[in-house]
Amino acid sequence: MQKVMIVGGGVGGTTVLKLLSESEVFSIVCMADKNESAEGMLAAKERGIPSVTNWSLGLERDLDIIFDTTGDPSVYKRIKRDMDEQTILIPGSVALIMTKLFEEKNRLISKLENTSAKMDLILNTTSEGMVVIDHGGFIIMFNDSAERATDTKREDVIGRHIKDFIPSTGLLRVMQTNQKEVNQEITLSNGMELITTRIPLVNADKEIIGAFSVFRNKTEAVQLAEQITDLKEIQTMLQAIIQSSDEAISVVDDQGRGLLINPAYTRITGLTKTQVIGKPASIDIYEGESMHMKVLQTKKPVRGVNMRVGPKHKEVIVNVAPIIVDGCLKGSVGVIHDVSEIQALTHELNRARQIIRTLQAKYSFDDIIGASEEMKLPIEQAKLSARTPATVLLRGESGTGKELFAHAIHNASDRKFNKFVRVNCAAISESLLESELFGYDEGAFTGANRGGKVGFFEEANQGSIFLDEIGELPANIQAKLLRVLQEKEIVRVGGTKPIPINVRVIAATNINLEEAIANGSFREDLYFRLNRMPIFIAPLRKRKEDLRELAEHLINKINQEYGRSIEGITAAAIHKMQIYNWPGNVRELENILGRAIIFMKLNETIIDIQHIPDFIEEIPVKQEKLLMHPSGYVSGKPLSEIIDQYEADIIQQAFHTHKGNKTLTAKALGISVRNLYYKMEKLKL
Questions:
Q1: How far apart are CA 650 and CA 303, in angstroms?
Q2: DSSP string, 231-285
Q3: For the CA atoms of the chain, what is the radius of gyration?
Q4: 597-607: pLDDT as tens digits
Q5: Residue 658's closest CA among 673, 646, 645?
Q6: How far apart are CA 445 and CA 443, in angstroms?
Q7: I want to staple 664 with a disulfide (CB 3.0 to 4.6 A). Which of 390, 470, 534, 658 is the partner?
Q8: Contact 360, 408 (CB under 8 A)
């Protein structure tokens, strides 16, 4: 055995170490590298091979071969100078070649072993019995099915002459004649009858090197033949049914290649058998994706899919179902219905429904969530206003639910069966807003539609119109809107004839209209027309007792939108949300809950404190100076301002005493909650 030292613990040295360790010819007596943590040094320690940090120490051993894998010419020269003359020094380049050769050898061995294993697996899993003989007639292969068919163990026949096992064998004759014999009957010595096919084995030089026989029990073969006959009859019947059907039918295999179509398919798509059979399932598609391929991927049927097929671009509805036999997917069958006219009518109907949906109010008072005193008052006011034709002005911060109130007011009014038109005044450009609201006559401006256009107010006639962001209206539109409210008529852009209308106006704003009037951006006379029935909707931070009920309602809504099944929210999560001020109101709450549900794991069903993001700490409310008595006369200030300041201080003090509860504050001051809201608005508290 050759004693070896390896110098260098890098990749090359490690590879040489692993290869030589597997050999019985070499004995590695030492591994050398100046770095003790080198990969080769660690591998040597795992194998119990001595290792040194100075290769010169290894020269003291009786060595036959030294592998220098460092790649450093100076190291190679020093080793050659100091080593024994009888020792062989192999440089890194030669070591690399050896490594490649060893790797190639192992790869070929592994490939041969895998090929042999795969061949044995194939031969032993086939249902046909198989026996193979060599040129001398000796049995060299006998598979599992052959064992079962002949009731003989493999070890009892391998190496025996075929004549000793089957005296009446024809395999020797097949080798002599070099002719295949198909479906021949043979009887074994135990009386078992077989149906066999014998085939000679020929090498690349066309020399006969043996023969093999594939056989099956005769009884099984007869049963199989009967089954094939029955299947052919069934196939003939199915083909007759398919060919005579008025519905277009196409069948593909498990790879999505066309197997069968009927005349109705050709009539509808315009494609013949030669264009479809054996081709991909998508060959007939002009518009849409292949439902055959989708069904093959999901193993689930699809129904009522709209597509266009064939060179005629025929509009059809497709139903496709998977073909599953004994739990295995074998293909899919599709039925195509030619319903172009019906589809066109359905499309028009769906379009009409979409238009109708945009003209309907979707929410009622049942959809307004809140049992706090701050919500009871606006809800009662809204219900009262719904019974009158008066103009309603919804006021509140963004995200408090003003549009929800508008929908509910319309649905609770006697106009609920008429149109409900929604207009966001801030979302339409100023140049288009007038024509969108009031319509225009033909020729009113360049590009105007022939015959003119009906505006939102005419469209909402006999119904309600919701004007959101009313404070964003430009001055000229405010003047026209005032005329609509006063005279109950509109004049189209470019027109002169007034058109009478009967529309209930519901307006909404999140800006301070009083300040807008003061700075001249909003008309005072329009304000008085709109402010006939004002409804103030409290922000979420002022009705935090509604948080749980709101959260549970929004969770149910988000479940339907996202397809989740979240069951509720914990008290800890609610408490965490109650310390937040919610500047975005209910809209922000819905955003936070939606985000929490998105990032929840599929097995989680309850929103807990860890699912709620860490909110920015609520900015402490600025502590106003609480006056215990009037501050007295202030020079330069009129009496009204001094009284307002004193009233504001008293209300602030009452708020502080009752911890911000408006109901208790109003009760303590002897005024109504509505009056308290009015004073807060007036004093800008």
A1: 70
A2: HHHHHHHHHHHHHH-SSEEEEEETTSBEEEE-HHHHHHH---HHHHBTSBGGGGE
A3: 46
A4: 998 888 889 99
A5: 673
A6: 5
A7: 658
A8: no
pLDDT of residue 627: 39
pLDDT digits (tens, 9 = 90+) for 198-257: 889 888 888 888 998 888 776 665 666 666 666 677 777 777 777 877 788 999 999 999
- CA 7 – CA 75 distance, rounded (Å): 9
Average pLDDT for residues 82-95, to the nearest whole number?
81
Q: What share of the chain is helix, strand, coil (3-state, %, to 5)?
A: 45, 20, 35
- The answer to which of 82-96, 219-233, 421-435, 667-681 has the lowest mean pLDDT is 219-233
Picking from 212, 178, 218, 210, the residue whose alpha carbon sits closest to that of residue 198 is 212
Question: pLDDT > 90: what percent of the chain?
Answer: 17
Alpha carbon 586 to its chain centroid, in Å, reads 28
- End-to-end CA separation in angstroms for the chain: 99
Cα distance between residue 128 and residue 131, in whole Å: 10
The closest alpha carbon to 505, from 537, 473, 550, belongs to 473
Judge whether 30 and 52 are in contact, CB under 8 Å.
yes
Give dist(CA 143, CA 125) in Å, integer. 9
Cβ contacts of residue 173 below 8 Å, gap of 6+? 181
For residue 526, give both structure tokens: 């329009």
Quick one: pLDDT at residue 428? 84
CB within 8 A of 91, min separation 6: which ones? 68, 76
pLDDT tens for 153-164 read 888 888 888 888
Tokens 């064939």 belong to residue: 310
Closest to 250 measured CA to CA, from 228, 220, 271: 271
| Greater model confidence, 66 or 107 | 66
DSSP at 139? E
Is residue 636 packed enough to be buried (19+ CB in 10 Å), middle (13-18) or exposed (0-12)? exposed
| Distance from C-alpha of 344 to C-alpha of 367, rounded to nearest angstrom | 36
HEC states along 520-546? CCCCHHHHHHHCCEEEECCCHHHCHHH
